[in-house]
Amino acid sequence: MKERDIKNIFNTTRSISLSEVERAGMRSLLERKIEAPKKVSVTGFIVSIKERYMQMRWAYVYTPIFATLVLFIGGGFSLAAQDALPGQFLYSIKTNFNEEVAGLFSSNPKAKAELQSRLAERRLLEAQRLAVTGKLTPESSRILEEKLAVHVSSVNEQVESLKSTNEVREAVEAGSRLEKTLRSQEKILTVLNEGDDVQNMVSVVRAALVVVSEENEELATDVANDEGVSEDLALSVDNKKTQAQNEYRRVQDLLINARETNATSTVEILQEKSVAIDSLIKEGDAHITAGSFNKALLQFQKALRLSGEITLEAKKEKETIKEEPVVDPAQTDTESATSTPEVVLNEDTSVVATTTGTIL
Amino acid sequence: MEVERAKKEFLEAYDTYADALFRHCFLRVSDREQAIDITQETFLRVWQYIEKGNKVGNMRSFLYTILSNQIIDYYRKKKSSSLDAIHEKGFEIESGRYGASQIFKETETQHLLSKLHTLNDNYREILILRYVDGLSILEISEILGKKENSVSVQINRATEQLKKKLRL
Questions:
Q1: Is the ipTM of this complex over 0.85?
Q2: CATH number at residue B68
């Protein structure tokens, strides 16, 4: 085999990367470490330790034994629970203990919001793991739905808290992070498209996305009136713009597929929304050029909300298509006609999965 | 002033190599959380080294060397847990951007990973360094402390083994 072939095979691993939250979290920790003052001298430290040991040697003997026992018993359960899924015995330890403990280390609203976003993502990854193994039941869906609602609500609370202390940039970033997470998870769950419980989960994520998107638009509206924070938002606006452009491309792809399947009403909806999204992005760009990042943020956020509306409307259209399967008139072979792929709307920007499993 | 420059260069190195190091680590240990921890620990160790006033010539090679040592430590600590159990657990590939094409690629990736993990760790490491991280033979030889010729031979052997596993 040629070296080029092997390289191509390994190229598929390019998709593996840190999430934005993970990358930022790690960077933040490193920044804190490199800014932290150096520790006291080693000699002084050892002398101090020796003195303290002499004073409290009995405590030093028994405390580690006790702590080891606690760690062995509690830590064993805690570690084993890390990979538990809804419906399994250790899952409550994972969510009610491990994650609660992790929450104790989040000392400020920004860190709390980051943690809750990450937990929301974790819930949806659990849903995916259950879905692909055919174990996503109504009960596990209900558990995940409840927990997801708690995480979403918690992020919103932290966003409010950041807003109240005038940490506008942090508030915008926290809201955006959750929205981006939900959007990407919604897409993957939609592609899985296996059974009613997965569909139900998709609906739950879409509902959450609508709520978060509206909250973010409300925040962006407030920010749009505050010129003082404009420059702080440059990076957030750039990220938001990228998201809006991705959504615009997704709508364009949906439009092409809708035309191919002669879904007339879908084409009309998509055309209308596509023009509106494009217009909002251009307005956002104009604000960036003028240096009004706060106003640009609102335009891009509106574009994202519109894209969310398409998701819901496309879903309705999909149901209509299901009732009246589209058959290519050129195809005379009955078998071919019945196997005409039904377009599942609301897919990724670049490709659309069909119910026959083909990746277009 | 010197310290400030070192901090700046270190954070730039983080921005440049964090994803690549994480990817390398994830492919070696098959556990996302562990890969994050090991990547973080690697950067912390590199900073501790720099903080003591040491100079780093080739930051990329140095990072991979430290990372490689961290992964070896991880396996030593984890000796008791069966590798089979890790493989059965599967690979959670995660990224910020999902879509149908992403899923398709992930299926391919999972197939590759499942085969990659049937190779011994030396072969796996050398293939990842070469084809995922895109390092030169010279850089790999620096990281692994082996002669260039030996590295080339190992890459060829590892490639042949993987080829058989993938039935190519």
A1: no
A2: 1.20.140.160
